[in-house]
């Protein structure tokens, strides 16, 4: 790589220190930093991007080697955009723009004002102020949602108080904690004072430049709603998720560089979702829901024919897999990784039912249900989860347990035992993998109308009795009338974080009722369970 070159560009009304590295004749990428950084924050990212691009970064006015305006008004977004435009003009051709924090906020203003200068825009942790204002107006009837977002910006009120933050920045320990210089901290206050809430509602403009948002899962300041605010305003919007905090360019340069490259190339992949037992029922409905949401779906089922049917319906990929077979599950996971990549979501859903009292359930019945319902989930998660951890982009593991996993009963001890086990497993995984940005959820449906009754084994019954009892069970589930698509909708909302994350998710009224009763009247739950007999 060529050495870093450095020069000064005349911005709106002052000099900006610009540096360049990478391959001079290649496509240019301009990196804009935020508060209270300098262009140094991009150091490692620029080094990596330099292998493919001409990488230009500059110190925003008031920071690093750039001059500072005389007053707060000099930090208005209009001035910042003029600076950025001056840098791009100096580059001499349209650029791919990347902004972090305030660098992203000014990036939004720049791509809206001068689409002719930008090939794409990658936004990391810096929303457009007008879009956020518009989002707040659109959600004014949902005050809790709005407050939950606005509380992230509490510090801005502090920054707008005269003198006090300047005094705080004098304390060396504070500066060390923030990893910032006093000049950047003091001057950077101008960004907030000149632009936030100063002039009433801001105009919002449509953005025609291709935009990619990188969502940082552990960013305390910029949350999902800030990113969603862009949706009505951007013609071509994609998004990816990185398990990192606000200063990802510093802490995760490899991953940030990869996300930027994908954004520039327009190769950002669709979410990959792997579902076991997706040939029927809840698994199939979940595959359909994710496909409608734009995901690429891998359908795994022991019934190859049904797996293929689902895959055709969702435009996904089908593989035959018996989850009870550890080696086969490992091999399929290997093949999925090679052909489609590492999954973002794994739904360990395959399961079978065994009905019958403990005294009538044979060892073979036990082995079969434990092999599929418990070992199957363990094999599935052991095969996929380590790859997700290694990739470090987070994800979600969903285990289809059952309300039977928390309702002790005299009707299905073997089935309930396996479901209680995977209910615990999901909770353990959520505890263990959260630090990797991987969430786990145990889905606990009550009675759902699927084909599961077709495969029920009634322990100790003759073949003729089996058929009769299967039909009776099918009738009950039909009468209950809760379709698998409703379970699927719940899974999608959960993974899309439409609601706050939950580890145990009862689905259906009866599952919710028993879950609640377990807390307030566990004795009553046991009494109910004694009445429920096979
Ligand atoms: P279903 O029978 O319609 O679908 C289950 C699918 O899993 C089938 O396609 C089947 O071929 C597949 N499968 C079975 N054994 C397998 C194995 N060894 N390897 C791979 N695939 C296998 O049933 P469903 O109701 O959709 O059940 C899905 C999950 O939901 C199960 O774990 C079940 O225990 C759970 N559940 C169902 C209900 C309900 O009322 N339907 C309630 C609570 C929990």
Q: Could you write a compact summary of the structure shown?
A:
This protein is α/β, with parallel strands linked by helices and 534 residues long. It has helices at 43-49, 77-91, 102-113, 129-138, 143-150, 154-160, 164-169, 172-178, 182-195, 224-228, 248-251, 253-265, 281-292, 304-314, 326-339, 363-391, 413-433, 463-480, 484-495, 509-520, 522-531; strands at 5-10, 15-22, 28-32, 54-58, 95-100, 118-124, 211-216, 237-242, 272-276, 296-301, 317-320, 345-348, 354-355, 395-400, 438-445, 457-458, 504-507. Helix 14 links the parallel strand 10 and strand 11 (317-320).
Key terms:
single chain, about 525 residues, alpha/beta, eight-stranded mixed beta sheet, elongated, binds nicotinamide-adenine-dinucleotide
Tally of DSSP β-strands: 17
Calculate Rg over CA atoms. Answer: 28 Å
Shape: elongated
Distance between the termini: 73 Å
Assembly state of the chains shown: single chain
Small ligands present: nicotinamide-adenine-dinucleotide
Unreliable sequence segments: none
The averaged pLDDT comes out at 93
What is the count of DSSP helices, taking H or I runs of 4+ residues? 21
Bin the strand percentage: 15-25%
Largest sheet: 8 strands, mixed
What does this structure look like?
With about 525 residues, this protein is of the alpha/beta class. It has helices at about 45-50, 75-90, 100-115, 130-140, 145-150, 155-160, 165-170, 170-180, 180-195, 225-230, 250, 255-265, 280-290, 305-315, 325-340, 365-390, 415-435, 465-480, 485-495, 510-520, 520-530, and strands at about 5-10, 15-20, 30, 55-60, 95-100, 120-125, 210-215, 235-240, 270-275, 295-300, 315-320, 345-350, 355, 395-400, 440-445, 455-460, 505. The strands form 3 sheets. An 8-stranded mixed beta sheet has the order 1-2-4-3-5-6-7-8, with helices on both faces. Strands 11-10-9-12-14-15-17 form a 7-stranded parallel beta sheet, with helices on both faces. A two-stranded parallel ribbon has the order 13-16. Helix 13 (about 280-290) links the parallel strand 9 (about 270-275) and strand 10. Helix 2 (about 75-90) packs across helix 3 (about 100-115) and helix 20 (about 510-520) crosses helix 21 (about 520-530). The radius of gyration is 28 Å and the shape is elongated. It starts with a strand and ends with a helix. The model has no long low-confidence stretch (mean pLDDT about 95). Nicotinamide-adenine-dinucleotide binds near residues 276, 279, 322 and 402.
């Amino acid at each position: 790589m060529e050495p870093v070159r450095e020069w000064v560009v005349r911005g709106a009304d002052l000099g900006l220190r610009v540096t360049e590295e990478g391959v001079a004749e290649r496509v240019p990428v301009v990196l804009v930093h935020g508060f209270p950084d300098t262009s140094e924050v991009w150091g490692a990212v620029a080094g990596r991007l330099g292998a493919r691009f001409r990488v230009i970064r500059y110190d925003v006015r008031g920071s690093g080697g750039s001059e500072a305006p005389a007053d707060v008004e000099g930090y208005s977004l209009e001035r910042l955009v003029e600076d950025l435009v001056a840098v791009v003009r100096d580059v001499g051709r349209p650029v791919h723009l990347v902004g972090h924090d305030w660098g992203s906020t000014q990036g939004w203003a720049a791509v809206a004002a001068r689409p002719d200068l930008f090939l794409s825009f990658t936004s990391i942790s810096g929303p457009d102020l007008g879009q956020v204002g518009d989002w707040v107006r659109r959600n004014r009837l949902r005050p809790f949602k709005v407050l939950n977002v606005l509380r992230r910006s509490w510090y801005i009120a502090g920054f707008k108080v005269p003198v006090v933050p300047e005094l705080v920045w004098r304390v060396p320990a504070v500066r060390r904690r923030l990893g910032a210089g006093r000049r950047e901290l003091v001057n950077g206050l101008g960004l907030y004072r000149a632009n936030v809430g100063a002039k009433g509602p801001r105009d919002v403009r449509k953005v025609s430049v291709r935009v990619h948002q990188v969502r940082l899962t552990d960013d305390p300041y910029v949350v999902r709603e800030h990113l969603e605010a862009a949706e009505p305003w951007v013609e071509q919007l994609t998004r990816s998720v990185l398990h990192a905090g606000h200063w990802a360019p510093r802490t995760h340069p490899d991953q940030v560089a990869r996300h930027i490259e994908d954004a520039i190339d327009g190769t950002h992949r669709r979410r990959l979702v792997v579902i076991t037992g997706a040939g029927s029922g809840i698994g199939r409905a979940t595959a359909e829901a994710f496909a409608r949401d734009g995901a690429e779906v891998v359908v795994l089922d022991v019934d190859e024919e049904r797996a293929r049917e689902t895959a055709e319906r969702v435009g996904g990929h089908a593989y035959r897999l018996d989850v009870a077979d550890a080696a086969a599950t490992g091999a399929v996971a290997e093949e999925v990784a090679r052909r489609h990549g590492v999954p973002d979501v794994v739904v360990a859903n395959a399961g079978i039912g065994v009905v019958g009292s403990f005294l009538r359930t044979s060892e073979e019945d036990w082995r079969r249900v434990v092999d599929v319902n418990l070992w199957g989930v363990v094999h599935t998660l052991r095969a996929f989860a380590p790859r997700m951890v290694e990739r470090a982009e987070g994800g979600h593991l969903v285990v289809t347990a059952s309300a039977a996993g928390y309702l002790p009963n005299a009707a299905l001890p073997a089935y309930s035992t396996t479901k209680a086990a995977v209910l615990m497993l999901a909770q353990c995984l959520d505890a263990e993998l959260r630090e990797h940005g991987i969430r786990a959820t145990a889905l606990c449906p009550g009675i759902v109308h699927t084909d599961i009754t077709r495969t029920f084994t009634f322990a100790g019954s003759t073949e003729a009795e089996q058929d009769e009892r299967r039909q009776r069970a099918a009738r009950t589930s039909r009468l209950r009338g809760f379709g698998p698509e409703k379970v699927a909708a719940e899974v999608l909302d959960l993974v899309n974080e439409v609601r706050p994350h939950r580890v145990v998710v009862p689905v259906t009224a009866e599952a919710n009722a028993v879950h609640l009763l377990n807390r307030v009247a566990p004795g009553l739950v046991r009494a109910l369970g004694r009445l429920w007999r096979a």
